[in-house]
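Sample intake sheet
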Amino acid sequence: TFTWAEMLNAIADVVAPPGTMLTWVDESFLVERGVDGSVVPLWDGGSDQPRWAMAADPTRALTAGLRLRPLAGTIRDTLAWTATQTQPTTPGLPPERESELLAAWADSARNCARSSDPH
């Protein structure tokens, strides 16, 4: 098995441009800036509903003999399959909006660090 971060990093390793870095951002930061789950894949957009979709425990299936494929192979096969499917015209955040949010996140982290500096 693997963590959420390990899965996202493995996906980025296969599909993202070289040098891509994933940035973890607080949910409240995104919600406060009007970002919702319609533009961020696999995120519920700050919903108050329980997050059961990713909470399944695979122990029983693994004990019963389920064998996991290597994650990178699954990612490559899924990418090849999606190339055969009709894709949304604008998946995800527009690059300009993503850059704006990342800059604001970096700025908020700098401000937080400054406010907690005792000097």
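Comment: Residues 95-116 form the longest helix (22 residues). The chain is about 50% helix and 0% strand.
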